[in-house]
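For this section, I looked closely at a protein sequence along with its fold in token form, which I now present.
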Amino acid sequence: MLSKRKAKKGLSGAVTALILVIASVIIALVVVGFAFGLFGAFGGTPTVSAVGSGVIYYSSGSGYAIITLKSSGSVEIVSAELAGTTYSGTAEVIGGSGSSSTLSAGVNTVSISFSQLPPLQSGSTYTISLALSDGATVQVSVIAQ
């Protein structure tokens, strides 16, 4: 009877317990990651918001704005418009790879070039409306310099 018992092979109780503890820790980390939004790529559409007010510079009928946006994921700026007008601009993420209008997760500095602008009053606050590739719109306040 004793020889049959020694012939059996398998995992010891300690190894089995260790495997279960490691699996439990991994599962707990995944659940916490999703709960706190650490896996933004799997969380659906990204959230984009303005960080403070930007500035807009005007010179001889044209100008540009510098704004800071915080994004929870990758999304493209499709269009930029001075709110309440028909004046539109082209957005470019500063420091991005090449000339791109795609926001990455985190804080992004964006330059918006306007080929035409009405005269802006220095010190006044204006709003720029940004349309994103996911269909969302973000309103950003800028102060004329």
The two ends are 93 Å apart (CA to CA). Residues 70 and 107 are 4 Å apart (CA to CA). The chain has a mean pLDDT of 86.
